[in-house]
Specification:
- It is built from 4 helices and 5 strands; from the N terminus they run E-H-E-H-E-E-E-H-H.
- With 146 residues, the protein is of the alpha+beta class.
- A 5-stranded mixed sheet has the order 1-3-4-5-2.
- The chain binds a DNA duplex (12 and 12 nucleotides) through loops.
Length: 146
Amino acid sequence: MKSEPSEVSIDDLAARPGQTVPWDGVRNYQARNFMRNQMQLGDLAFFYHSSCAEPGIAGIVEISRLAYPDETQFNPQSKYFDPGATRENPRWFNVEVRFIRKTRLFSIKELRSYPELAGMRILQKGNRLSITPIDPSEWKFIEVQL
DNA sequence: GCCAACGTTGGC
DNA sequence: GCCAACGTTGGC
């Protein structure tokens, strides 16, 4: 799960009350569907810092609340406001994640260096999804090196 | 700041 | 339903 550290970094998450954050503001249908249809309570995810000086995996989080309607879509003040969404018929959903631990920075450069990880969605050319599923074998390969 | 790649929008 | 134009993403 990608987050810009200037918005929410792994340290920001660790400092929050309850060490949780709603993963709101996602406005891509595929990413929404991963959250709404696939994610289960207790599922683990890598917390990835994107659009920054050192992009890469920076920590591990768990899903602490199942997907529910993203509050920001209803707020005209929010940059994520969606005039096409109603409370009766919400368009966007988000899970909540909880801090598990910080890791060393496992950079995108290093991720790219391992043939074992070449199939990772996040490494594919042109990938723009902020949320992508990860193969269990890829998870293990990375986790033991963190 | 650049720019390739992609998703969305909207006129037709 | 097509597709050009536009906006966004995100590594570099």
